[in-house]
Amino acid sequence: MQFGPVVPADVTAPHLGIAGIVVYAAIFAIVAIATARKPVYAVVALLLLDPFAYSQSVGITTLTLSKIALVGAIAGLIVRKMPVRALTAAPVTRLAFAVLFVAAATGLSILHAAFRTPAERETLKWIEYAVILSVCAIAFYEDRDERVIRWAVLVVTAIVIALSVPELYLGAHSGLIIAHNEVPRIAGPLEGPNQLAAYLGVMLPVLLAYTLLEGRRWPEIFVIAGGILATLMTFSRGGVVALALSLLLVAFLCARSPAARIAFGSAAVAVLAAAALGWRLVAAGIGLVTTGPHHHVEIQGGLGTRRDLWRAAIQLWRAHPMWGIGAGNYELEVGKVLGAPIKTHTNSFYLQSLVEGGPLLLCAALFLIYCSVGSFVRRAQTPLTVAALAASTALAVHFILDLLVFYPKVGMAWMILLGVAAADAALKGRQPAAPT
Fold first, then answer.
1. pTM of this prediction?
2. What is the pLDDT of residue 430?
């Protein structure tokens, strides 16, 4: 079988020009007007634009379609004089505080960073995540129209899959060696294959939950099947395990009979057990797939192996055990520790938090995971709350092997889901109990 070429991506964003200004102005106006007319359109706009960056650099940061849409959504809510009652609801408040806790711990690391600009950039990113969560919660709380949310998730997921799968034959930006053949790892509009797998791990549980709880729609079934296939084609071990876990959790939470719950719950535990065993074998060097970095990637910076990256992270943390080396600084220091031209992150959300922000940032990261799961354990009754619980649990597992929230497209998708699910849970709690 003939596969497409593997060519490294050019990640350099051009400077903001006239064309960018025109596009951004149009997106801002459209989103602001739509949000002022119907608040839930803010969520729809963020969902539809999230995977498609159209990046333009300005100073130390980068403008994207989603950032402009976020500003437009805020403007629309202000014009409409939208109340912010959602922010006082327990699940929304808890989640917003958890994200801001991570932002504060990240910001504190600026004081101890050898390179402050990356730390400042990471701090702004987490503040942006908190704003996204809050805006989505406010908009959905005041305009609970699940129909448009469901269609938006379906449409954007289908587009992402359609842009990703052909890369197996057209070529991709990363690959691996299987049976002496270089096979592309698809990524589509996402930053990489692990990020595509994580993105689908957030979107597909939403579609499955709606299908199981609100009625079957054949387009959703086809998209779910296509998403599973696309995730397998990413060859992301953590992503495949996380998606399987999230879909099994959705099936478990939506099951009506005790026998079905036992079956889906047992399958979820089996997936975790098999993944743990498989990773142990790979870590021990007993694997059938070779995933060593390509020579051209090595020349341009290299990615390294998790074993080397994790050892370097522990070594750097031991040298700065209290406050870490500063957010965003690991990729600038790891090459010095390993004595190789490597510039990448740790491939672990938890380890990255520890090495860059010390115990405080690690505690903040763990608290965010706890809130993202715990906020829905007793509230998983609607498609959005079920999906949020399943996706957050799966991400908590995937975070062991990949630093996913470093990439805004994945982090934004997660924050959108948490925001609307928290608002949905708050609205569900306000409804009077049914008469007995």
1. 0.90
2. 64
